[in-house]
Amino acid sequence: MDEMKTYRGQCHCGKVQFEVTTVLDRGDRCNCSFCSRRGAIMHSVTADRFKLLTDEAFLTLYQFHTQTAKHYFCNVCGIYTFHRPRIAPEKYRINVACLEAADLTHLKIGLVNGAAYD
Questions:
Q1: What φ, ψ does residue 105 adopt, rounded to 5°?
Q2: How far apart are CA 77 and CA 16, in angstroms?
Q3: Which of 55, 60, 57 is nearest to 72 (CA)?
Q4: CB distance 111 to 36 below 8 Å
């Protein structure tokens, strides 16, 4: 049975670091024009279960179309770490590949139809 755990995440160079507390049992791919090219598997957490551990100065914000979603990248190594989604801006969507010591082999992978929002 899956349990609530705290995971530490970071970009490649370590300038962007964060923690999430979650049951890591599900991930999603999105088929929007941006996410489909990025290829990341994302996992949602509520804002109270996300904590940025490093200075925001190392984050680069990318927005497009309605300028609602906020996609964050490390401004040193370029890795996509997390974003605030357009359809649920109160949440964080985490790039699960950034999570350290997380067993991702059992994730159920779904599809978010983000193309419907383009």
A1: -70, -20
A2: 10
A3: 60
A4: no
Distance of CA 9 to the CA centre of its chain: 10
Per-residue model confidence as pLDDT tens digits over 65-115: 788 889 999 999 999 999 998 888 899 999 999 999 888 888 999 988 888
Question: Across the strands, what pairs with 83?
Answer: 71, 93
Q: How far apart are CA 37 and CA 85, in angstroms?
A: 16
CB 96 within 8 A of CB 27: yes
83, 70 Cβ separation under 8 angstroms: yes
- Residue 102 has which token pair? 């997380």
Q: Give the integer Cα–Cα distance in Å for 104 and 94.
A: 13
Integer Cα distance of 97 and 82 in angstroms: 11
Q: How far apart are CA 48 and CA 21, in angstroms?
A: 9
* Digit-coded pLDDT (tens) for 10-56: 999 999 999 999 999 999 998 888 878 888 899 999 999 999 999 99
Separation between Cα atoms, residue 97 and residue 81, nearest integer Å:
9
